[in-house]
Amino acid sequence: MMTRTAYRPSVTTEKMAIIRGQLQGYLDNDVWDVTDPLFEKYGGGDSWTGLLKRITFSSLPVSIRDEVKFFFANQLVNESLSLSTMLNYSSSLGQLNLFLEKYYPRIESLVDIPYTQGLMKYKTTLTNTGIRITNKDGYNTAPITTFNSIFKFLSHFYDTRDEVEKDVWDLRKIPNARYTINKTSYLISFEKIPPLFRQIVKDYCMFALTYLSQGKLAEQLRGISCYIDFIYKNYPDWKDFNQLKRQDVEKYFIYFNKKNASLSASYKYKLLSSVKNFLEYLQRSERSESPLKFISTLFFKEDFPKISKQNENQIKYIPETVMNQLELLIKLNPLEITPPMDDNEKEYIPIVMLLMATGWRISDILNLRFQNCLITTNKGYYLQGDIPKTDVKNHRVPIDREIAKIIQFIIKQTEDKSTKENNPEGYLFVRTKGKRRGKPFTGASIQNALNRWATRYNIVDQNGETYHFGNHAFRHTKGVELINLGMNLTHIMKWFAHASPEMTLMYAKIADDTLRKEWEKAQEKKGPLLRVDLGDARVSEMNLDDDLIHWEYIRSNIEAVRVPLGYCLASKKEGCPYVVTPCLTCPNFCTTPENLPDFEREIEKIEEHIEMTKQYPIYNEKTKEQLTNLTKIRDQLNEGKMHRGDSARKTLLQAQKGKESVVI
Predict the structure, then answer these.
(1) Same domain for 138 and 224?
(2) In terms of DSSP H, where are the helices of 129-213?
(3) Residue 640: other Cβ atoms inside 10 A
């Protein structure tokens, strides 16, 4: 099989000039004393209390010394490593020198070492001198970590190729690539793809970058990597996919399912679909490597795992009892809580409050900019920000005065500590030091803090068990809350920037189901309801399945959006002039294929009623009219389409045209 020579970066005069430009003044010394005033702004200087105080480079070969100094200087200036970590790294420079003297005495740069071969020799050197290469937990010790960090840094520094030519892509350096700023994963690696197929996989990924996020692209790459691994092992003479036949695909499915038996059906579906997408791309773009047979003859829909449609039980929202416990916690003085919160955890409280108040995604909250996130009008306060996931600009939701005051405080705090260097993008919640300097907090740090609070301060669910928080659950919780407050579905769609009513309707179903469960639990505690019969002067226990007076009273709060066979998008105050054929001809009525069984049952009842009212022409005519409307909508739903009334359709189209709607 053909192979490609691995790329090895080389030292250039331009790169050497950058190194010399960095090593000016004190940093050019072969010994750095961290108690020097130069290091004060990095936590050193007179206030340094650590046992180690010096970083010594003089033991290294002259040709390598400047490269290692440049690594340390770069990490220092960018605050990528703390002073204590740098001092820990420097303690390994003596072992690195012994290794270089023994195996590579004539190299001019560390990148001249073949990495895999060199690392094995370095590990052997350390082991022979009695130095551990891993700790008791299996992690690399300082000598290995130092070698890997310096080598990786210099390899990247000397690599002058365009980003897409590399075997590891940093999506931050690729124009228009989509990645999430509140995550630490920016890299896409092709190193596991055999060199023969690596370029066509890169070409596919460049195409996929136009519509996929970093997470989805990594998912696709995992599926493609598994497939090519199968081809590489089972058809070692293949240089392309021209010979691919149906039996080869069937063989791959067996291989895939055996290798990935523990994965969920939905994730298997995604990985297998990525292979089909990849091969379709090759065929549609007329690549010479593409299969000669049509993809439709290679992959059948029956090949893919069946995944159930998402329902309201799969959407996690936070129970009201848990929300009450969390609200009580964050309203307390952090210093008066037992045990008290530390400073690092206190900074997460405003973010949690915004999640609760707005229902925005965590990425939306962490993308806020302090210069324009709070809007004040004569009607009140608004939170304003861009929605990175779907590229919606200046999206607004109303907030109350209390939340506005908190944002004003955070704005002032962030503005005071921000500079062009530590917060160039003007994020509201920003890290001004460390590896994430200039970037917002990570979403994982907020979720981890919430779950620490749940454990530490005993936030429990209805079963008394410690509750596990997920950031996105706040979004669903807000949706249910707005439904329960009686807000019109159209307004909720705009609040969440949904492109279609399906997700909003799901919140309505959750709210409907939750109301009944909560009511039934309340009745268990309260005791049986009593029915009073004034005619017979009798009082008797009411059967829950007979006459749910209280339940119907509670439901009336959301009946403006919930109707038989679907949901109404009209305001409560508008009333309904369509009572002859309830909702079916209303311009605000909306229903989805999910309601198809309800229509089938209703049509069956109407047909029976038509047969019964043959002798009553007036009633029969109205019933036939009802049947026509039901059948028309039923046929639409049967085709997998959603039915919207004219008013609902216009509202949605206007929202989409004005870019006020996005997909959740």
Answers:
(1) no
(2) 142-158, 195-208
(3) 9
The torsion angles phi and psi of 134, rounded to 5 degrees, stand at -135, 155
Distances (CA, A) of 406 to 176, 350, 419, 475: 34, 7, 22, 20
In angstroms, how far is CA 515 from the centroid of its own chain?
30
Same domain membership, residue 50 and residue 146? yes
Residues 480, 485, 490: CA angle, nearest 5 degrees: 75
Query: Residue 80 corresponds to which amino acid?
Result: S
Q: Is 468 found in the same domain as 320?
A: yes
Q: Residues 52-63: what's their mean pLDDT?
A: 91
DSSP 29: S
Mean pLDDT of 253-271: 92
Where is 189: in which H helix or E strand?
strand 187-189
d(C-alpha 55, C-alpha 506), whole Å? 60
pLDDT-wise least confident of 289-293, 487-491, 647-651: 647-651
d(CA 331, CA 241): 62
Tell me: pLDDT of 623 over 80.
no
Longest dimension (CA), the chain: 109
CATH number where 325 lies? 1.10.443.10
Number of helices (H) and strands (E), helices first, in the chain?
Answer: 24, 15
C-alpha–C-alpha distance, residues 653 and 426, integer Å: 34
Which residues are 377's β-sheet partners?
Answer: 380
Spatial contact of 58 and 21, defined as CB atoms under 8 Å apart: no
Give yes or no: residues 370 and 477 share one domain.
yes
More confident residue, 457 or 576: 457
In angstroms, the CA 570 to CA 620 distance is 29
**69 lies in some domain:** yes
Is residue 395 over pLDDT 60? Answer: yes
Tokens of 413: 């705090």
Tell me the residue ranges of DSSP E strands in 510-641. 530-533, 538-541, 562-563, 566-568, 589-591
Q: How far apart are CA 429 and CA 423, in angstroms?
A: 10
Cα torsion 459, 461, 462, 464: sign? negative
Residue 342: predicted pLDDT? 84
Q: Do 151 and 207 share a domain, yes or no?
A: no
Q: What is the mean pLDDT of residues 479-486?
A: 79
- In this structure, the answer to whether residues 272 and 371 fall within a common structural domain is no
Using left for φ > 0, alpha for ψ between -120 and 50, and beta otherwise, residue 307 falls in beta
Per DSSP, helices labelled H in 13-160 are 13-22, 62-77, 83-90, 93-103, 115-128, 142-158
**Do residue 339 and residue 453 come from a single domain?**
yes
Which pLDDT value is given to residue 492?
Answer: 77
Pairing between β-strand 562-563 and β-strand 566-568 as defined by DSSP bridges: antiparallel
Helix pair 349-358, 443-456: axis angle to 10 deg: 100
Tokens standing for 441?
Answer: 């907090």
Tell me how far apart the alpha carbons of residues 200 and 173 are, in angstroms, rounded to a whole number. 21
Closest CA to 126 of 164, 99, 91: 99
Range of 395's domain?
A: 316-482
Least confident of 25-39, 476-490, 551-565: 551-565
- Residue 429 and residue 439 in contact, taking contact as beta carbons nearer than 8 Å: no
Number of domains in the chain: 3
